[in-house]
Amino acid sequence: MIEVAALVKSYGPRVVLDRVSVAFQPGQVVSLIGPSGGGKSTLLRCLNGLEGFDGGEISVLGEKLVPGGARVNARALLAVRRKVGMVFQQWNLFAHRTAIGNIIEAPVHVKGMAVAEATERAHALLKSVGLGHRADAYPSEMSGGEQQRVAIARALAMEPAALLLDEPTSALDPERVGEVLDVLTALAKGGLTMLVVTHEMRFAREVSDRVLVLHGGQVIEDGPPAEVIDRPQHERTRAFLGLGRAAR
Amino acid sequence: MGSTLYGARLSRPLLASVTTPTLFATALTLGAAALTLGGCGGAATSDDALAKVKSAGVLRWGADVQGGAPYIYEDADHEGALKGFEVDLAEALATELGVKAEFVQNDWSALVPSLERGTFDIAMNGLEVTPARSGRVLFTRPYYVFASRLMARRDDPSITADLASVKGKRVGTLTNSFTADQLLASGIEPVYYEGTDEPYQDLVAGRIDAVFHDDIIAGIYGEHRPQLRVVGDFADGFYAIATRKEDRSLHDAVDEALEKLIQTGKLEEILKKEKIWNDRQLGLTAWSDADQRRLLGEATVNTLRWHHVVTFIQAAGVTLVLSVLAMAIAIPLGLFLAVCRLYGNAVVSRLAEAYVELYRGTPVLLQLYVIYYGLADVIKLDAFTAAVIGLGMNYAAYEAEVYRAGIQAVPRGQMEAALSLGMPTPLGLRRVVLPQGFRLALPSVTNDFIALLKDSSLVSVITVVELTKRMTIVAVDVRSWLIPGALCAALYFIMSYPLSLYARRLEARLARS
């Protein structure tokens, strides 16, 4: 459903993605891991056009994205973004809206859904992420974990075919990480296609079907978690996963 | 027209800003002076005003170059030099006193208060002898006799040589002038101008129906316009030289010198040079003490009455409505400019930037003149509309910058979240970024509105009578700045203080979140 072909992206002289080619199938839960600066987040952000790119081509649910950024891809990007949701490291909840207001914003103003219907669905979504009691809370009144769960509900409200998650637990207090991972695990079990940039090795190993390791702008490892995490082929992967493992 | 437009107008913002803060100082000085006078009782003849002028070697005389020809105006042939019959008269008088004349520029409507606070020794600038003024200053014998002249458009036959024919019509004249008093006495509320040329421009443009002004002003600024006609002349008025009440010795010396200039024919020579000599002036040669008593005898003391207070409250309403409407233009236009500047393509962004720089970089007073008088040939706005648009467009420039700062303070992730949900950029702006940016900008917007309330007093230059202008008119009428000034200040305060509180509360709320 998502195909990336020879993707090239650079910031000035620094090449961030170096001819990356990879495809994702429906229903897959894919963890993107690797050291900082390896290109994980950039790859994710290219998929829904928050970043433009310099070479290659991306196809998302039949929509083609080409180099040239938002101007060139305007129509395709609108279509992609309506079908592919995104969850950010810093939640990015709309600060001037309540939890419910955040969730109904796009269904009402992008899809044209009636406010009453959108609100009803939003309440159900909030309940499903364990926040039925926080409907009228503003972002500034919620903990990071609560905000991130609202952000997930907000993305789900558009009924996306896939969800892109950019380090969804990195900015959370350690004791809040679990509540967000629980929600993601439930979604994975429900069969939602997810691409998750993460540093949570337990999540990568236990929840995802497939793990990609990005390093230096290239995919250096790609396979089921049991292979990639437990029997890494690449020296760099071993180094990234920890000295103990690399020494073994 | 060219000369007055230039020299006079551009000097006004400075003057306006200087005069306002000195109101209270003036009021205080006045109060003190009144107490002193009350204590002495009777006219003191042993003052040293004349001695001071003689020892200083200069006679400082106050006038306003904006009054223009033939009184006092910039000499087109000699840069920086002044011409006019009052310039010549001041020099002749100074020579008689054995000193040099020194010109002091002063806003015409504030000549008397400035005289009282000692900015200059005498005021001489087409200052008509009116009951209100003669109660406040010492007037010499007159040096010019004028007639109040009514002018109308040629194509408007409804106006006849009877002031009753202009009742209910819009009649322009100079603020606080003899002709303004005459109109008020006939039950006509004038349209107030601060310059001499503008009422005739507006009469031609059809913004007003008639102009009632001194004949020599009409002669120079009105009668050369082919669209206009002289309807008729009314009561005679007199220009005289004013000194402070306590400066009896100076008054006597100037009066004596003036009489000498009249008797020797020097005054006639001066008036002929500006081509304003006529038979009316013959009466000056035989001016008697009885004539002078009759002229000054009408001195009456007006006091602040309830109806003045009512006009103040109405004027405060004008100020408030004007400010609200101007802000109603400034807020959306400012928002539009800020969005153009931040999100438009290179050309649009540059245009928005140019607008902001142009409007912030030039005085709002000049912009008001351009919109009202400068564009009169293209679009004929009435004064109030021009004032609303002028202030609104000016404040839009400031609002644009405030919103730009507010929008830029909204974290980038907010727009990314909106885009990632499938919103096109304009929708994301409207639904997510602008509401938050506006909220961040709101304290500054409120503060700007308070500033606008006060800046709105500038629109009096295009004949809108708002609170400050009303205060000036009444203060001259009742010969005191103290109570009208305090009342005016109180009304501004009542309008702005609740807004200040609101802004403070908003700021506190923003600081918390």
Averaging pLDDT over every residue of chain A, what do you get?
92
* CA(first)-CA(last) distance of chain B: 57 Å
| CATH architecture descriptor name of chain A | 3-Layer(aba) Sandwich
Helix content of chain A: 40-55%
Helix count, DSSP H or I runs of 4 or more residues of chain B = 20
For this structure, what is the CATH homologous superfamily of the domain at 306-512 in chain B? MetI-like
| Helix-strand makeup class of chain A | alpha/beta
Mean pLDDT of chain B: 86
Q: Multimeric state of these chains?
A: heterodimer
Global geometry of chain A: globular
Q: Globular, elongated, flat, extended or rod-shaped: what is the shape of chain B?
A: elongated
Biggest interface goes to: A-B, 25 and 20 residues
Distance between the ends of chain A: 38 Å
Q: Which radius of gyration of chain B do the C-alpha atoms yield?
A: 27 Å
CATH fold-level label of chain A: Rossmann fold
CATH class of the domain at 306-512 in chain B: Mainly Alpha
- Runs of chain B in which pLDDT lies below 50 for 5 or more consecutive residues are 1-44
**Low-confidence parts of chain A, pLDDT < 50 over ≥5 residues?**
243-248
The largest sheet of chain A is: 6 strands, mixed
Read across the widest sheet of chain A, the strand sequence of neighbours is 6-7-8-3-9-10
- Share in β-strands of chain A: 15-25%
